[in-house]
Amino acid sequence: MTLSITSDNKASPQVLDDDLFAPSPRHPDSRLETDWLFLYNKLPPDQWFGADYAYKTSGWLKVHTNIRKRQRILTQISEGYQTGEYDWAKYRSQMLKRINMHILKLHQHHGVEDEGFFPEFIRMYPQLQAGFEILGCDHVRLDALLDKLQLQNDTLARTEVEDKALAEQLHQTLVDVTNLLSQHLSDEEDLVIPILGLRQG
Q: Could you tell me the CA-to-CA distances from 155 to 142, 162, 168 in Å, in that order?
């Protein structure tokens, strides 16, 4: 929005009112531009699970809930080892299969989005292309982190003797994935869920 400035270099009351009531995403660190939130304004988060929309929005939100849950469990197990709650054997047994499954499901989810949903949504709303480009770049960054995590997990699978340095490296990668996922999933939901809820069919 371009501010109209009065003679005393202050924004006009109308512009201030427009800014006050402009739609804003749920998260203060969102990367979504105000201009991209026209659908979000029509279908805000407090309506996402409403009777008129839940049958179209709940599936996507459930996938994201499960992603967050798996990521949180992995981080908690890693933190448990760091604090001495788990010994090396239990840490390894808890981490190995969970990481493999988590990476597989994330790659599958991103593939469906990149190859199907995101191009479809851009065709529906070309003015949102820049927002979906941000999400696509996130996928590239996440894939690189997941590849790193997979290599570390493969090393963990071969390392029966305790290796605290490896565990610390793996923990840092999990933290990096958590931070990026948190940003990515929130921005994606604010952009995608209103499209799902408001589209016909």
A: 20, 12, 13
* Dihedral angle sign, alpha carbons of residues 188, 193, 199, 201: positive
To 10 degrees, what angle do helices 164-198 and 54-82 make? 170
Fill in the DSSP letter of residue 2: P
Q: What whole-number distance in Å separates Cα of residue 124 and Cα of residue 198?
A: 12
Least Cα distance to 33 among 123, 118, 110, 134 occurs for 134
Q: Is 55 helix (H, G, I), strand (E, B) or coil?
A: helix
What is the pLDDT, as a whole number, of residue 200? Answer: 82
d(CA 148, CA 5): 50
Q: Identify residue 148 by its one-letter amino acid code.
A: K
Residue among 68, 110, 79, 77 nearest 95 (CA): 77
120-154, pLDDT tens digit by residue?
999 999 999 999 999 999 999 999 999 999 999 99
Beta-bridge mates of residue 11: 5
Strand partners, 5: 11
Question: Is 56-198 a domain of CATH 1.20.120.520?
Answer: yes
Q: Does residue 177 contact residue 146 with C-beta atoms inside 8 Å?
A: yes
The token duo for 61 is 């939100």
SS3 5: strand
Tell me which H or E stretch contains 158. helix 129-158
Scored b (16 or more CB within 10 A) or e, 143-172 reads eebbebbbebbeebeeeeeeeeeebebbbe
pTM for the predicted model, two decimal places: 0.85
